[in-house]
Amino acid sequence: MLMAREEYRDDNSPHQLWNARGSLVPHGVCHCLLLQEGKHLALIDSGIGLLDVRSPVERLGQQLIDMAGFQFNEADTAVRRIEAAGFSPGDVRHIILTHGDPDHTGGLADFPGAQIHVSEEELAQVASGHWRYVPTHFAHSPDWRTHGPSTRQWFGLEARPVEIGFSSEVLLIPLSGHTLGHCGVAVQQKDRWLLHVGDAYYLRAELTMDDHPVSLIATQRAEVDTKRRASLEQVRRLVRDHGDEVDVVGYHDITELPEAE
After folding, report:
1. How far apart are CA 110 and CA 102, in angstroms?
2. pLDDT of res. 259
3. Is residue 71 within 8 Å of 103, Cβ to Cβ?
4. Per DSSP, what are the bridge partners of residue 6?
5. What is the pLDDT of residue 39?
6. Which parts of the chain register pLDDT below 70?
7. Phi then psi dihedrals of residue 138, to 5 deg
8. DSSP reduced 3-state for 108
9. Interatomic CA distance for residues 203 and 251, integer angstroms
10. Residue 95, C-beta contacts closer than 8 angstroms, at least 6 positions apart
């Protein structure tokens, strides 16, 4: 059985955001989802990593740190949270990326033996030297596994199977717009699914509010905002029409996954 063992709150988050009540919260979080089947572990996104904490300016640059508002706390990195939960980081054999922004990729170097799964389109953008990605996060030569277009459908959306050796399915679900290759990650759990939507929304309130204050931030940080909005509508549709089969969680909303806080 594939288990969502822990949803890691990472207080190394880059964002100031508004909560569902429209009030400014002091920071966002980074929900890196650890999957467990027996002794085998896989991670969805990797957050800010140890090297970022120890050499932030060298890794990220002062301009990005100031702009994003990164905070650095070694205890809140994914690798330290995994160790604190009693697991060995070496057992993380796979990392599935929603996309390649620096608050999602800093921890990749903390798991050098892991295969890194990402959409074909996203890796092409990373390799192109696009300004939004941080080259130092990939300097350790990650073991990339790319996933291209698929005919598989999942609740009306394209689904790209990710083979990680678990008995339950893991799928990349293209939700383009925030970046060109941005994907959600769907995880089968018995007769239900969990969809980690990455940055398809910043706050869950966006699922019901078109004019939420955070929408301006989402628009500014989107690679193609029309696609981002279309992807958000697909997430809304899933929640509205398939809420009895699919649970949805985002990457940055501090009010989500309270049991992990």
Report:
1. 14
2. 52
3. no
4. 34
5. 87
6. 1-28, 258-261
7. -120, 10
8. helix
9. 9
10. 42, 43, 44, 45, 46, 108, 111, 114, 115, 116, 117
State the residue range of the domain holding 208.
Answer: 3-260
Compute the 3-state secondary structure of the chain and give helix, strand, coil in percent, each to the nearest 5.
30, 25, 45
The predicted structure's pLDDT at residue 19: 43
| Full-model pTM | 0.90
Q: How many other C-beta atoms can be found within 10 angstroms of the C-beta atom of residue 58?
A: 10
Count of H-run helices and E-run strands, the chain: 8, 15
> Can you give 29-66 as a three-state secondary structure string?
CCCEEEEEECCEEEEECCCCCHHHHHCHHHHHCHHHHH
| CA 181 to mean position of chain CA atoms | 12
Task: Report pLDDT for 216.
Answer: 85
Quick: pLDDT tens for 153-200. 999 999 999 999 999 999 999 999 999 999 999 999 989 999 999 999
Number of domains in the chain: 1
